[in-house]
Amino acid sequence: MSLRRLLASALCLMWVIPCRAQEPLDLAVWLAKSDLWQTTQKTLPSNGFRWLSDEKRSARISPEAEVTLASFSVGEVVVRFTHETLTSISLDLYARGDNAAVDRAEFMKLVGQASAWLTKHTGQPSRELQATADITKAHHQVWETKQCAYQLSHSFQRERKSREQPFVSEFIRIGVTNSKRFSPAQCTPSWLKEQVQRGPLGDVWIAGVPMIDQGDKGYCVVASAERVLRHYGMDVTQHELAQLAASHREHGTSIGAMTDALRGASRVLKVRVRELYSLFGSRSLKQLVDRYNRLARREKEPLLSYDADFFTKAKPALILSSRIKQAAFARFATDIQQAIQQGTPLLWSVQLGVFPEKESPQAKGGHMRLIIGYHQKNKEVLFTDSWGLGHEKKRLPLDQAFAMTLALSVLEPRE
What is the pLDDT of residues 63-99, one digit of tens each? Predict the structure, then answer.
């Protein structure tokens, strides 16, 4: 495999930490409670839910947990809070990244069963919803009661025999919101700048970037994109983005495919993609290897080939020296500072394993994370990984950050 092909796909894997056995949660019973929307951060059921960050704005039940919705097995469940009060619930009945593939008949049978259950649960008929801000052209049904609005969404890729394209099941999701919804904050330039915090010791960072947990699959690219889009007020999931970018559970997501997908959906998502740096061009990669080998020859270290093992075999000190002398290193620092000051997180594609990192579930390979801040005096970048609690705000020296950088881009809101 060529170095270019290896780097063009960001693979993110994490260890699944087993949780202590607890009484299985039946979400149907919880959803039926009359005081559901009075649930606070303190009264959220403890059996299964895990907070995604110290801010406790959202909590998650992993797909591996024993959770049901009446007779349905449930995958990932995410609840979100506004002003410390529950405002939305998302339940995956099926997700391509978390479940085995199913054929069309089995997929549509599950959709039909979920639809019938929601009609019985709510005592209301459903109506079709034509979503104007739908990036996957999913199918939506809505049920409304005085307390809740339920939305059943499902998406798949049709079989196209002429193109030898099989049927692909994507996702089946139930979303539950408070009928008396909170109005989301308007994503204006002034609002974004208001989210920028300045600490007394010199940290400058964007506060409140939503945290999600990509789980044990290679979804770091789409998870990072979801977090930025949610920060801008868009209700989009990593599974929808995975459908757009043809993400793979094990092999991850092509950075190029994700960039193209975001550009193709830019009007719906109300963002523009601006690439700031990329090492994916064959010329850029070759220049890096050539610079490295010149230093290696001087230090009497082995010369390396232009292949997939380059970062694995390369000496960290030589990679560092070969990259920080580039003019792009100075631009890297400037681009970060300018984006953060505008309140826009940066999509940061990196090669893990070049330098040791504490508390990183993934030891090596391609990965995408978000840069959310910097410390100018200490020459540090502040970043976050989409691995849930404990990964909200971390830091690395600026030179090491650039030395491991594969690509850097920013999603800018369109007015």
Answer: 988 889 999 999 999 999 988 899 999 999 999 999 9
What are the tokens at 307?
């292949």
SS3 307: coil
Which structure tokens are listed for 323?
């990259």
Dist. CA 347–CA 147, nearest whole Å: 38
Pairing of strands 271-278, 253-254: unpaired
Instruction: Give CA–CA dist 248/25, Å, rounded.
Output: 30
**What is the rounded average pLDDT for all residues in the chain?**
90
Contacts of 108 by beta carbon, 8 Å cutoff, 6+ apart: none
CB 86 within 8 A of CB 58: no
Q: pTM higher than 0.85 for the full model?
A: yes
**Contact predicate 152/57, CB 8 Å:** no
Q: Token pair of 120, please?
A: 């019985």
Taking the CB of residue 315, how many other CB atoms lie within 10 A of it?
Answer: 17
C-alpha 333: how far from chain center: 24
Q: Where are the alpha helices (DSSP H) in 123-219?
A: 189-194
Fill in the amino acid letter for 365: G
